[in-house]
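Quick review question:
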């Protein structure tokens, strides 16, 4: 069943011990966790419910220093398991975790009063009353992980609240909470799948870096599956991706479905005194942001790093502690934060800034032309962004990559730039040596029959286009005259040793020439000799 339960509660109240008693799995996998006896990172385990359903459990740390980790674990869960020590009662992190769950919109859950075998009946009654007041409507179950008392009742209570949240049919979105490497498999990323599905062979984009990745295999709790569904804990193996290229906070998404943004417009859930700078928790990411309040109910978050969000997502705002949260109104708004605009979006009006597929708007009754709808202001921002990139481009290749977005074919022609293959240029722009003129002369002065190593690949490519040198493999180059002379020495069939002696260079140099002849279609290799493909 695609459903995930997340623990919550103060440090040392027995979350991990309880999860192990329920599932048989110790979620403290790190040596330092086992040595210190506290959870530091997120842990995961499958839980069998009395009715035969199998759900995922995310175990979070309870220490105040790891609240950001707790939020990452609570993101995307369907229900909570709040753990309170029956003797100590609710403590500071208990209250903050409850607040975070509320801000994330996680309303269903169960409260477990742990270590119930160590307190008298009166203390247990007081703890139960406090828990019922803290989380109105939640079932409260007294348990002992040591003796097993109450565990069956707790499983039954979890089964009662284990109902999937209504999920839309949005494209795949998986927020990464852990990355590791397995021998023979490679890099593996795990997370809770927020929407869509992920299966073997799928192509995804790792945002915000924009890297395309391929899914080799998918597992749900160490069990291979053909396709994972929204709400499940998922592990995907990603061939060709280095572990250092992914981190907690990144997101794997369907290509073209979501766009990283440095701004979020949100409707505030709580009208608190929010400071001008906060940490924004969204998905599994934590990003510093400036807060621009807009009236009493809205704010624009201006982020230090981009995030990938969608309308309706929840965010948590923290400073020294949790100070508030909100619901995303616009995941890619314009720079100007307007109360009128936010009010219109909250009313459900289809205001568009960044590109949205026209079909999505037509589905809700908005008639638009073309394949994509977007604001002129967004187009101006994109044009300005590309102009800045062109200003910083290498004069030897004064272009920038065409945006790798599904809207590129429709929108790029409206930018006033020339598209040449996979790059965009200012109209009429040509390669120029500029400040490299002296370096070019010095390089040409060194060129001859003996290949030399050229570290400036862009300069070598430019000079070759100007017919001023010939590039050989491995970053080497020779003069054009030397290359033409070497071509003239070829016979119909010639070995490496014969060519080396004719040219009067070393074996490695001769090999570089012959490889270039092969790539130019002058020769082809047959065993240990080269055979001419065409007449000179």
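Suggested answer, residue by residue:
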């Amino acid at each position: 069943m695609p459903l995930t339960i997340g623990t919550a509660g103060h440090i040392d109240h027995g979350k991990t011990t309880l999860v192990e008693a329920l599932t048989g799995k110790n979620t403290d996998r790190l040596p330092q966790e086992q040595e210190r006896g506290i959870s530091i990172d997120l842990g995961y385990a499958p839980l069998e419910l009395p009715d035969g359903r199998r759900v995922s459990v995310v175990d979070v740390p309870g220490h105040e220093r790891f609240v950001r980790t707790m939020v990452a674990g609570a993101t995307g869960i369907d229900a909570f398991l709040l753990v309170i020590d029956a003797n100590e009662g609710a403590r500071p992190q208990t209250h903050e975790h409850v607040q975070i769950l509320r801000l994330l919109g996680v309303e269903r859950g169960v409260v477990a009063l742990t270590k119930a075998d160590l307190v008298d009946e009166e203390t247990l009654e007081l703890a139960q009353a406090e828990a019922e007041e803290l989380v109105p409507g939640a079932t409260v179950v007294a348990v002992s992980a040591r003796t097993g008392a109450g565990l069956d009742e707790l499983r039954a209570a979890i089964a009662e609240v284990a109902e999937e949240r209504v999920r839309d049919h949005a494209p795949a979105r998986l927020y990464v909470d852990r990355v590791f490497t397995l021998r023979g498999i490679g890099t593996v990323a795990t997370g809770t799948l927020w929407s869509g599905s992920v299966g073997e062979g799928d192509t995804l984009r790792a945002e915000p870096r924009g890297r395309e990745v391929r899914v080799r295999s998918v597992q749900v709790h160490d069990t291979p599956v053909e396709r994972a569904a929204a709400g499940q804990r998922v592990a995907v193996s990603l061939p060709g991706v280095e572990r250092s290229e992914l981190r907690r906070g990144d997101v794997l998404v369907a290509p073209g479905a979501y766009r990283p943004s440095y701004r979020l417009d949100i409707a505030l859930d709580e009208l608190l005194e929010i400071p001008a700078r906060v940490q924004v928790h969204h998905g599994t990411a934590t990003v510093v942001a400036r807060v621009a309040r807009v009236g009493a109910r809205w704010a624009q978050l201006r982020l230090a790093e981009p995030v990938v969000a969608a309308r309706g997502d929840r965010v948590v705002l923290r400073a020294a502690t949790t100070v508030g949260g909100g619901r995303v109104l616009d995941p890619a708004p314009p720079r100007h934060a307007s109360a009128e605009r936010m009010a219109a979006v909250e009313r459900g009006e289809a205001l568009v800034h960044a590109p949205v597929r026209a079909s999505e708007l037509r589905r809700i009754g908005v008639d638009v032309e073309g394949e994509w709808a977007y604001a002129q202001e967004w187009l101006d921002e994109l044009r300005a962004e590309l102009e800045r990139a062109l200003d910083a481009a290498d004069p030897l290749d004064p272009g920038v990559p065409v945006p790798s977005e599904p809207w590129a074919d429709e929108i790029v022609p409206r930018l006033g730039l020339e598209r040449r293959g996979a790059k965009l240029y200012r109209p009429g722009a040509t390669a120029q040596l500029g400040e490299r003129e002296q370096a070019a002369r010095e390089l040409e002065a060194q060129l001859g029959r003996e290949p030399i190593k050229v570290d400036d690949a862009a300069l070598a490519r430019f000079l070759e286009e100007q017919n001023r040198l010939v590039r050989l493999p491995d970053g080497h180059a020779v003069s054009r005259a030397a290359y033409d002379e070497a071509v003239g020495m070829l016979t119909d069939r010639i070995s490496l040793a014969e060519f080396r002696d004719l040219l009067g260079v070393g074996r490695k140099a001769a090999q570089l020439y012959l490889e270039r002849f092969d790539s130019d279609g002058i020769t082809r290799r047959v065993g240990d000799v080269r055979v001419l493909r065409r007449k000179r």
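Why it works: The longest strand covers residues 173-182. Residues 435-532 form a domain with the Arc Repressor Mutant, subunit A fold (CATH 1.10.10.10).
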